[in-house]
UniProtKB/TrEMBL annotation:
This is N-acetyltransferase domain-containing protein. GO terms for molecular function: acyltransferase activity, transferring groups other than amino-acyl groups. It comes from the Eukaryota. The lineage of its organism: Eukaryota, Viridiplantae, Streptophyta, Embryophyta, Tracheophyta. InterPro entries: Acyl_CoA_acyltransferase, GNAT_dom. SUPFAM superfamilies: Acyl-CoA N-acyltransferases (Nat). Residues 7-155 form the N-acetyltransferase domain.
Length: 156
């Protein structure tokens, strides 16, 4: 993975705008328009009990994970993305692992996420870190695209 640091983005950080701009570009490139948070990132990050971690490689944002914890009972991984040139180098795993650790410090009992069943690398990563399939949600992304709801019980 090279020299990489997983960093928690803080609202008052000097790099705030640069990091958000890079993430918005990544969002637009990776996700279909109706799934992208590119236009609402600032609002998403202002929400109470939400966080964003990013993988910094020499000043470049290699990937990011957004998560929220509405209560100590549960948390959600809302987005996880890695730039194409940085994939299969451990960035996604490092980001997800750090988000799980952050949730643990908040005494979260269960972490959930949704994933398109056709995104095999993502499914493999989630299973590797202990997530289990809970249910198939028909039409989750669009009428013709479903999602697996997956969960990780943090205490295990």
């Amino acid at each position: 993975m090279g020299s990489c640091a997983v960093v928690e983005l803080q609202r008052n950080a000097p790099k705030w705008s640069k990091v958000i701009d890079e993430i918005v570009r990544m969002e637009k490139k990776i996700f279909p328009k109706h799934e992208s948070l590119a236009r609402s990132f600032d609002e998403e990050l202002k929400r109470r009990n939400s966080g964003l971690l990013y993988s910094d490689v020499g000043g470049d944002v290699a990937g990011y994970v957004m998560y929220s914890w509405p209560s100590s009972l549960c948390a959600s991984i809302t987005k996880l993305a890695v730039k194409e040139g940085y994939r299969r180098q451990g960035h996604g795993e490092a980001l997800l692992d750090e988000a799980i650790k952050k949730c643990r410090t908040r005494s979260v009992q269960r972490i959930s996420l949704h994933v398109d069943p056709s995104r095999t690398p993502a499914m493999t990563l989630y299973k590797k870190l202990g997530f289990r399939i809970d249910d198939l949600i028909e039409g989750y992304y669009s009428p013709d695209r479903s999602a697996y709801r997956m969960y990780l019980d943090v205490d295990e």
